[in-house]
Amino acid sequence: MSDATETIFSKIIRKEIPAEIVYEDNLAIAFKDIAPQAPVHILVIPKQPIAQLSDAESKDHALMGHLLLTAKRVADQAGLSNGYRLVINNGLDGGQTVNHLHLHILGGRPLSWPPG
Ligand code: 5GP
Asked: How far apart are CA 58 and CA 109, in angstroms?
């Protein structure tokens, strides 16, 4: 399993470094990406430090559902009524750069497909 015990996102969860937090509950937190790739670019992360999606286990079933529903809620809150994209980069080939599971919410413009 990859090590996700301490990343930049741990510091955001603990409020040790600033972030534009748009949603928080006891299981998850959502904040604006520091380098937005679209007019709306928000990250949804579990407070529990799971390094990447491929490390999630059966016991994380409810948390995974919660993250997806949280992303929907945050996208609604951000006014993305015209649509949006959810992205999870997993591991090296997936382009993951922070080893703490996160869902990207991207929207506010038409998004092309396929991604690079
Ligand atoms: P990944 O490439 O791992 O899928 O996505 C990591 C994301 O985290 C990137 O989009 C990057 O811009 C964002 N990010 C990295 N460090 C910080 C930070 O300190 N604050 C915020 N708000 N976003 C960050």
From this structure: 35
Among 33, 102, 106, which is best to mutate for testing ligand 1, by the most ligand atoms less than 8 A from CB?
A: 33
Q: What residue spans define the domains of the chain?
A: 8-107
Candidate of 6, 15, 24, 34 to mutate for ligand 1, largest count of ligand atoms within 8 Å of Cβ: 34
pLDDT-flagged residues of the chain (< 50) = 1
Look at domain 8-107 and name its CATH class: alpha beta
| Whole-angstrom distance, CA of residue 31 vs CA of residue 34 | 9
Determine if the pTM surpasses 0.90: yes
